[in-house]
């Protein structure tokens, strides 16, 4: 088989390459006996066979570059001979590369010229690269350039693994700054350690119009108030050119990249570089402008410098806040809870900063308020309980004010109607109504008009009236309480109180009942009022005569009273009775009350100075003087009982007084007192004693009734005055 060995170049003499005899299958000592040797191609052998060991060793310096050049791998085909018998073996020896050759440039210095005007950044200049006799990584070259702000190296590889080295201009050259540039190019291989080679570049800069105008700032920042008038100077820019003559003459203009908005708003003076306003600045349309400005000299070719002017438009408080109602939920129920959202509002101001910062408030401050939800949005909410009966509709004004100086304001009116809820019961103007009604009124006569106020609206405020309860008080000694509904009624819609029948004071004096007012709400609410109807007495009853009684304390000659026919009374008087002697007492009663029942007694016949007189209010018939025989045996007296009503009513009583002797008068008085039916010594027939007793009881009740009615009337007047107060 093929025997292969590998040995690095530049190995020292005696370095063992391999055990050749053993690898060829020779026994120990056989290599020397059979004269094992190597046939080396060339005049000087690089390897040989050690006679004793039969090993293949380095005999002289091995230089791979000398043996193989750039070929890889470097493999040498050797013939190995052995005698007795003669045999030929083929051995392949590979000499491996070591980094023993540094990169080498063809020239140590390379000089060339570059024009400062015509050469622009990015221009490339080819350079001759270095060479390295090694192969593989030891021959992989990299290049570095001494530090330079103007130049850099670019190594490009082609598809054929060839390399091209270029010098690249990074920055324009300026002969006025540096006339000659000296650079050192260093080539480094990839060996370890790396070996290097250098070459110096000498670059001469050719003078030209190589200085473009330069602004003292690349960016100018300036502020301008919006609303400034056209022609206002914004800024003056200035550029310098280090060249001389025409190459330093500068023209200012807007760059070709300028926008249409800038051209419409600004102008620039070509000679002075002054930028002025052409239009009117409006912060809300554009808050800043970027103006590209070019300064161009008049050289050939002309060079330009560029800068940018940033104009910041300062906001002026020239926009008032704006308020919009985005949502409105009306009407609002009057029982809406606190916090109910009524409307959503949006507030904005086109200005910025403090000029665009808006404060909002609502007027009046109650019962609504504003709650901020997020930026520029507010909710109009209920802050206090609503009452439609107090205020049925609100004109709410939302006021917005910005933070500018002076501040600008905006207002937005919001109409908020309040819908009704049945929260008010009908209420009468008075808790107690006192009504005075004359007796004998016509059935259906209107007694009073009741009115209950319900401040709610529609059905909630529609009131219907009804008599709920109550009764009527009769006269003293008469019937008891009766149902008021049998006497009066109330119209359900108008509240008109009218009588169902004629009222009779002698039957009923006071009607007291409650009237209920109910609204049509859901649920319905009601209110009550007490109505007291006092029946005012009319003088519709004439006085009625009662059986008269004689005086129980009659002295000598006193008589008695007896009843004859209707309205006719009899009495006895003794001749010689002194003046002032009570002969009889006329009794009468009037079913009316008050003045209508206040009676007075008048002697109608005989007129003039007769022997008898009548007490004006007592009804006592007494002697006006001493009786004489000349007065005759009998005196006929006509007595009129009259009340104080308007018109007055009256009754007439005829009293026949018999004049007798004192003894006869005494017998008549004794006979009268012996009758069991005579009351209090009155000369009344026994069958009429019960009537006298009844008349006495009637007088007592009459007094009681007059007092009661007077008290009730006084109480009603007091209550009425108190309720009105």
TrEMBL record:
<keyword id="KW-0325">Glycoprotein</keyword>
<feature type="domain" description="Cadherin">
    <location>
        <begin position="130"/>
        <end position="215"/>
    </location>
</feature>
<dbReference type="InterPro" id="IPR013164">
    <property type="entry name" value="Cadherin_N"/>
</dbReference>
<feature type="domain" description="Cadherin">
    <location>
        <begin position="429"/>
        <end position="545"/>
    </location>
</feature>
<keyword id="KW-0472">Membrane</keyword>
<feature type="domain" description="Cadherin">
    <location>
        <begin position="577"/>
        <end position="688"/>
    </location>
</feature>
<feature type="domain" description="Cadherin">
    <location>
        <begin position="216"/>
        <end position="323"/>
    </location>
</feature>
<keyword id="KW-1133">Transmembrane helix</keyword>
<keyword id="KW-1003">Cell membrane</keyword>
<keyword id="KW-0106">Calcium</keyword>
<dbReference type="GO" id="GO:0005886">
    <property type="term" value="C:plasma membrane"/>
</dbReference>
<dbReference type="Pfam" id="PF08266">
    <property type="entry name" value="Cadherin_2"/>
</dbReference>
<dbReference type="GO" id="GO:0005509">
    <property type="term" value="F:calcium ion binding"/>
</dbReference>
<dbReference type="GO" id="GO:0007156">
    <property type="term" value="P:homophilic cell adhesion via plasma membrane adhesion molecules"/>
</dbReference>
<protein>
    <submittedName>
        <fullName>PCDA5 protein</fullName>
    </submittedName>
</protein>
<keyword id="KW-0130">Cell adhesion</keyword>
<dbReference type="InterPro" id="IPR020894">
    <property type="entry name" value="Cadherin_CS"/>
</dbReference>
<feature type="transmembrane region" description="Helical">
    <location>
        <begin position="700"/>
        <end position="722"/>
    </location>
</feature>
<feature type="domain" description="Cadherin">
    <location>
        <begin position="49"/>
        <end position="105"/>
    </location>
</feature>
<dbReference type="Pfam" id="PF00028">
    <property type="entry name" value="Cadherin"/>
</dbReference>
<keyword id="KW-0812">Transmembrane</keyword>
<dbReference type="InterPro" id="IPR015919">
    <property type="entry name" value="Cadherin-like_sf"/>
</dbReference>
<feature type="domain" description="Cadherin">
    <location>
        <begin position="324"/>
        <end position="428"/>
    </location>
</feature>
<dbReference type="InterPro" id="IPR050174">
    <property type="entry name" value="Protocadherin/Cadherin-CA"/>
</dbReference>
<dbReference type="InterPro" id="IPR002126">
    <property type="entry name" value="Cadherin-like_dom"/>
</dbReference>
<keyword id="KW-0677">Repeat</keyword>
<keyword id="KW-0732">Signal</keyword>
